[in-house]
Every structure is written in C-alpha cells, then in structure tokens.
Amino acid sequence: MAKKPYRPQLTDAAKPATFEVEAVNERGEMVPTAVAGEHPLTLYLDKRELVTLMTLGHAPEALALGYLRNQRLVGALKDVVAVQVDWETESCAVTTRKSVKDLKRKMGKRTVTSGCGQGTMFGNLMEEIERIKLRNDVSLGDEQLFTLVDKVRKYETIYKQAGAVHGCALATCEGEILMFVEDVGRHNAVDAIAGYMWLQGIDGSDKVFYTTGRLTSEMVIKCAQMRIPFLVSRSGLTQMGHEIAQKTGITMLGRASGRHYLAFTGRQRLLSTAPRQTAIA
Amino acid sequence: MAKKPYRPQLTDAAKPATFEVEAVNERGEMVPTAVAGEHPLTLYLDKRELVTLMTLGHAPEALALGYLRNQRLVGALKDVVAVQVDWETESCAVTTRKSVKDLKRKMGKRTVTSGCGQGTMFGNLMEEIERIKLRNDVSLGDEQLFTLVDKVRKYETIYKQAGAVHGCALATCEGEILMFVEDVGRHNAVDAIAGYMWLQGIDGSDKVFYTTGRLTSEMVIKCAQMRIPFLVSRSGLTQMGHEIAQKTGITMLGRASGRHYLAFTGRQRLLSTAPRQTAIA
User: Fold this and answer.
1) Chain B partners of A269 at a C-beta cutoff of 8 Å?
2) ipTM attached to this prediction
C-alpha cells in the first residue's frame, strides 16, 4: 500500500466562485450577470510578508503552497507546518519548520512576465530549466488527447457561468483528468495545481498539463519545473514559450480543440495515427 | 494653433511583431505558424534597475514611458530627458531631470494582480482612485460604440496572424480610433497607450478605452488614472473590477461585440436608443 503523503495543517477557506451583478444590455433590458470572484490574498512566510495575489479564492491553501513551490521558496512539502487562510484579514500565513534563508535575495529580482507576471526569478529559473531532463519513455496518443480536450469542457463550470477565468488541468496520458482548477489569474491556477500535486503526493513525470491560456515562457517553465513532459493549450503560443519549450524538450501542443491540434516541439513523445506527410502548400 | 507637445529624446527600436515556427497538425502535415514575439526588456530609471517586462517589443519607448506613468514613478513627461532602448542588452534606459526620490519605497509593495500582475502599489493607488473625479459632461451613443467595436477588428493584425496577444485602443466618443497597441502582455498594451498619450499630448477625459482583455481591477484603475470615463471590453469582468468601477463611477461595458453589449456601471453617460425596460424574466 502506498504511504499516505505528509499533510501540513490546513484551513479549508474556499470562497464562493461567482457573484451576481446587474447589467443593462443594448435593448435596455436588465440582465443579471455572474461575475468571477476576485480577492486579494497576502502571503506571509514565517511572518514575513511576501506578496499579495489577486485570486478567485477557490483553493487558497493549494495556491499558497504551489506559489511557494514554483517560486522555489520552499523545497519540500514536509518543510511546511501549517497554511492558514483568514479572509477577514485577507491573509494566508505559512509556517515552515525552519525559516527560509536568504528570502530577501530570493525575492529580489522581479520579472514582469507576459501579461501574467508573478515576479519570477527569471535568471535563476532559466539555469534550473537547463538542468531539467524530462522523461522520454512516456507517450501520448491522439485519441487520448482528444478525450482530455473533450473532458476539460465539462470541468469549466466557472468559465461557463462568468467567463474571465483561466482553467488548468493535470491529466494522465490516458486522458483522465486528475485535478482541475480555475482562477482569475492564469498563474494562480497553475500554482494551485502544483500545490495539490504536493498535497496528494502526485509525481508529474508521466502526466499531461492542460491550460486554457496561452503558452508563454512562464507556463513552459512551470510545467518543466514540475517535470511534466506534455503541455497542451487550446490557445496559441509566444516566441519565448516556443524557445524555452525547445530548450526543455517538452512536448508542446497548441490550438487543441475538438480533434485538432498543432504540435510545436517534442513530437517524439506523440503517438500519432496520422502518417508523417510533407509540408502543405 | 496647439502648442507642440514636449518630446524627450527617444530611440525608435520596434521589433518585428511575429516570427514563424514549424508545427505538425493532427493529420501529420507541416504547418508553418506565426508566433507573437516576446522579449525581455529591463527598465533602468536613472541607472537603477526597476523591472523586466516581457513584451512584444513593438512600441518599447511608449511602453517604458507608460509604465513609469501608470506606476506613478514619473509625474510628467517633461521630467523625462531620454528613453533609450537597446535590444542588444535587452534594456531600456530612462533618464529624468531629477532622480526619482524614494524609489525603493515606491517600488516596495508588490501586488500580483489577476493573471497580469505588474506589482502595482495597490494600497497607494486605491487612495488615489478614490480622489479621482471622472467627467460627467461626456456621453457615448450606441451607434458610436458599435462603430468603434467594428473598427477594432481591422486593427488587430497581430492577433489575426498569431493570436496570443491582447489589444487596446484609445478612441473618441465618435468611435474614431486614435491609437491601437497589441502586446503579449495585457498591461503592456495599456501602458504603451498611456505612453503615447503623453507623447502626443492627448487628454483622456473625453475618450473611450477599449480592451480585448478582461475587466479586472487593474484595468479599471489604470483607466481611471488616465481620467478616461469609458471602459469597453469584448470580454467579461471580475468582481473587483466591478467594485472599483462602481467606486470610480466609470462607465464600464463588457461583452461588446457586433451590436451587443452589457453596461455594468456609469450608465448615465450612455445615450442608448433603446427604451429603458423592466427586468427580463
């Protein structure tokens, strides 16, 4: 039997996801409209203020853990004693076993990334990225991909009601969705997935990461950090997203919708049923 | 004749907007695909490193100016002596007449905003926002709005080619587009518009701001900072975007597409041709 993963003390402080506001349409009709929640949440790491995230607030504990994980501020879940969210004070207090050393330097260098900056320490991360080796003994078939793309639609409950959110999923190579998170912040959704993976003791090295958002540099970096070899989006990509995908050797698919996709990098992990053809005119 | 606005020394270092990469689709066909550029640009204010923005690089000088304007780090264009972009070193050096005082404190408090954080000084900005009075002697008619929405489509050249960018426009209340900027970062596009407004000496108080992106808190804040009374998006809104729109009294329209829209706040500035009706069932 698998060992039960370590679990720090956690609050369970999810906020309601949507709220209703009134709007008037072009015909002068009152239209009650669902709106995605958006709340400031200030993270404190061992009583030191780190950052204020604007979040839907649906998975604040996993978000806090995933943020600390992806920013490389906490190295392992077992170093975390407690994660306590208090919406009264809009704060999340994370207590670790030993205070994080050198926090000031670690948080010092800010990069505002494309549309979705989280002040990642770009320089340090790029060095780390170049050392990462993603597994090559895993593969993804077309039918499994199409299954995953189809299933995502059923999970997007907040998007369907209110729009204005991004969704992320962690799935198996059989196309089964293991977790799905929506947030007003694209990065929050990724970070919350990273937090859940820690809490549930899930290894990313044979998984697929799906995002409704664009394939920018940070999305590829975060995926590679979690050792996930497949990154799928229904949107497009940016140039740096493509460059970093090439560097990491990740299998990156964009414009995945229905039974269509574009494979940009890492095609050796794809089990395509289609014959390899020559360039189309 | 209007006085020619002051202009600091500026480079003219626009990057090409798109690049081509190879992709393979689900039928195994090679599909050359346009990708939006994405480049790091580190801003230095009087030789002090401020931030690294990830940008399309299409309007880097206006972006740098607008960033400094919207972050309230430089108070007026005439304080700026020069803006010099050098892509070799991926840097933009801004020289001011007198060094910005108290920069460390001003840059100290970070908020990672929804999906699109630029580390805005949220607390300070909110105080400022509450003092802003937007003009009430301006109005926008339905037909003028529909004209604007229609015209935007013709400006979105990068989006049509490559996707993965957001667009912003500044328009008159007659629906004429004065400037249009696309960037991989939603905030970069807004900031570049703010920079162009400075450079061209354009007052925002009787203008319309259009964005392809969501109506989040920061979008409303930046619009109000520029004294623009109308904010239009083809996307949805978040709860804090709605709250701040109510506080500022801005006229905020979402889901604007074709001849449709939803008016959320500030409806007194709309000249609707439709009769005011009762709530729909």
Assistant:
1) none
2) 0.80
